[in-house]
Request: fold
Amino acid sequence: MSPALLTALLLAGAPASEARAVHESALIIDGHMDTPLRLLDEGFDLGSDTPVTEGHVDLGKARAGNLGAVFFSIWVDPAANQGRYAHRALRLIDAVLMQIERHPDQMVLALSAQDIIDARASQPKKLASLMGIEGGHVIENDLGLLRDFYRLGARYMTLTWSNTNEWADSSGDIQDRKVKHHGGLSPFGEEVVREMNRLGMLVDISHVSDETFFDTLKVTRAPVIASHSSARALTQSPRNMTDDMLRAVAANKGVVMVNFFSAFIDDAFRKAQDAQNAERKAALAAQKARLKKGAGPLPVIDMATERQWSSKLERPPLEALIDHIDHVAKVAGVDHVGLGSDFDGVSSTPEGIDSVADLPRITEALLARGYSPEQVHKILGGNLLRVFREAERVSRELRAAPPPR
Reply:
């Protein structure tokens, strides 16, 4: 069915089946999923059927949601892995690659924009599986390690996680006076961005401080991504992006991939969660103490307990998520917004979004807001694909130039 016909049917009040047709014809790319933690620490197999109370992602649910490509997050807890950041990252990468080996009929390692398209065109369709390093501390201040992670398949790096590293400030601790900050990017941080441009590795500015964000845009030659960030004008989290930042990403020709976490898309939920922080942290500490005494394996993140506490709070409606997508589209432009769910890394998502299988509901809601099928396709994945291609073009240009003297 042509996009023009789909538009006409939708404007005429066509049934939900037409919205499903729009969704099924899209190449859907999720910029951020934390599933590798489950793969490594829980021995989870993506071929399993996951209860939504335990996880958001498995291959069956990905097919049901028509997910075409995903960036699996390689996140290393900086507190639990002191001195072993790179080692832990390698174990997580191995866990992803082992899943691809285990399910070659359903998954394929994607290293380029073209690989994503080819996976979609294969018969049967395969899930294009990419990886992103979440937190620049993982490279241990070594550009050689950055290159090694690229060789192993990492196609973006978030410059910081919630921790400031030796060369870039994070939004997560920017108010902590005990942390040594740099006022944004250090000179070595600028080198990191330049080398990422040369490699063709997407520069991810989710989690970074506002100063780091603007410093990065001064340095980068390629469009940036925010792999999982929402709009600060709607929800006052420092993890979200101000309207000035959204406009700067648009000027850079980048893309902001909206996070699904309830506390990032709904201020009422965020405030309620803040109010229960002391009790929740005490419960997490008590559970950790029990596990240390031999009651079970000690997880990096006790997501089960986090979910229990989040379940005490009212989930925001799906419209809250759509409001953030709509806001980014209005401020930055519809060419600069995408999806970065944070599935398997968050304890609460909006009503109706219980897993990756529910992605069609986002398409239905966007169409109901008046977005055309072509615009929806951009939001679902087309914008990220464009940015990826441009990063590859910049890389070819930089690699062809003679090295600086």
Q: What stands out?
A: Residues 9-14 have pLDDT under 50 and may be disordered. The longest strand covers residues 67-75.
